[in-house]
Amino acid sequence: MDIGVVSVAVVANIPDALTGLVASFVEVGDAEFTNLVREGIRQALAVHAWQFDWPHRSNRCVRATSTINWRLMDDHRLASQLATEAGELLVELRARLHAEHAPPAVLKDEGDRQAHELLMARLRAGRPDDSILSEEGKDDLTRLEAERVWIVDPLDGTREFGEVPRTDWAVHVALVVDEVPIVGAVALPGLGVTLSTAEPTQLPTEPNPTPRMIVSRSRPPAAALHTAEALGAELVEMGSAGAKTMAVIRGECEIYAHSGGQYEWDSCAPVAVAKAAGCHVSRIDGSPLRYNQRDVYLPDLLVCRPELAEPALAALASFDG
Asked: Among 28, 199, 218, 300, which residue is least crowded by beta carbons within 10 Å?
């Protein structure tokens, strides 16, 4: 039997089932057969039938699959899809290991490893010519010569991930061009939410009357505490840089200032998403955040509502620590 294979690429989390769907034909024969294939795809998509066998009079058939063609997906939706998929893997892994009474160290190690392997496989398949910098991978310095570099943190907030049922952990996927993150996605799997540059979330129009500053629950930086006092801000504790930054976008706080040491993968995707949402993003001295550097240590950042940027930067500048 001759087989015509149709791969249907599906972009998740889009209400219109036809949006982002791509069909590619392999080994399709005559024009009549091609038209019949198209009709079969149309009918399958209309009913969300991801697998179907459609016979032709010449005893050929079409097999449809839900295999995603990563190369045909735009960068923004790719980042969102990958962060979401890695997050779903982590939720399932965490539930299984917790049910098996695995210690937190095993949850952390397995979460880091499996999410990293998934993201590497997807990016290599979908963007084979791009470079990748991952917290969990070996740093290949040829990325410094690359035009496009994906920077990922497969599991941001490993401590919180190991403390079931905490939800303040995240997955980061970002694309950097010319030292600037132009694409980003941050999945908050514990909340079932992914924020991304594919469909930017806008800041709430009305901020909290009293500013709220989000800080690390275990080691709040002295500069952040000084700034909170100068602005009369309330302190909100949370883990994971991604979860903290998304809290600003989601209206759970107004300011996130960090000076306690981070790396590029900690802030790259969150900064891309925050900037797309309308936030101020910078170093704590007001200078731009630059990514894909030889030294990936990027110790500080400020993410806040735009109207609070000037007073926050002034307060940070006055800190003498």
From this structure: 218
The Cα–Cα gap between 83 and 198 comes to: 12
Portions of the chain given CATH number 3.30.540.10: 74-192
CA-CA distances (angstroms) from residue 235 to 238, 254, 304?
A: 10, 10, 14
Question: Residue 202 has what DSSP assignment?
Answer: P
Domain 212-317 falls in which CATH fold?
Answer: D-Maltodextrin-Binding Protein; domain 2 (3.40.190)
- State the CB neighbour count (10 A cutoff) for residue 117: 15
DSSP string, 96-151: HHHHTT--HHHHHHHHHHHHHHHHHHHHHHH-TTSEEEETTS---GGGGG-SEEEE
Predicted confidence at residue 320, as pLDDT, reads 80
Residues 193/247, Cβ–Cβ less than 8 Å: no
Of the ranges 8-17, 28-37, 254-263, which one carries the lowest mean pLDDT score? Answer: 8-17
pTM of the complete model? 0.79
State yes or no: pLDDT of 168 exceeds 70.
yes
Question: Do you find a cis peptide bond into 165, omega within 30 degrees of 0?
Answer: yes
Q: What are phi and psi of 319, to 5 degrees?
A: -75, 130
pLDDT (tens digit per residue) in 292-316: 999 999 999 999 999 999 999 999 9
Residue with tokens 């893997």: 89
CA atoms within 13 A on the CB side of 248: 31
pLDDT, tens digit, 9 for 90 and up, residues 18-69: 333 333 333 344 555 555 545 544 444 433 333 333 333 333 333 333 456 7
Phi and psi based region of residue 236 (left: phi greater than 0; alpha: psi -120 to 50; beta: remaining):
beta
Q: Residue 166 — very low, low, confident or very high, per pLDDT cuts 50/70/90?
A: very high
CATH class in words for 74-192:
alpha beta
Q: Rounded CA gap, 10 and 30, in Å? A: 26
> Which of 218, 244, 240, 226 lies closest to 314 in space, CA to CA?
226
**Residue whose C-alpha is closest to residue 50's, from 8, 98, 17, 91:** 8
